[in-house]
Amino acid sequence: MIKHIVMWKLKETAEGASAAENAAKMKTMLEALNGRIEGLKHLEVSAEIVESEPECNVVLYSELASKDALDGYQVHPEHQECVAFIKKVVSERRVLDYEV
Q: Hey, which residues does 62 pair with through a beta bridge?
């Protein structure tokens, strides 16, 4: 199983919305992927960050069946729609993938 974690710092304003509004949109868009991509076992998103170093506004935690499933998730058209929006509103991104 692969655990996939992404942390984003958002621009203060982007796409005509505040960081908080864009965080909420990211959460909705990304969590809608649950059950829609083969091999994606679980995905959750939060903008309720208690503490982070360096600062981030949104975090994604997901579990995928395998490295191949992660590769398929990355290029899936529905995920790519999310990526297109996220790239417009994010100033920094950190990612960590690990296998258990």
A: 4, 43
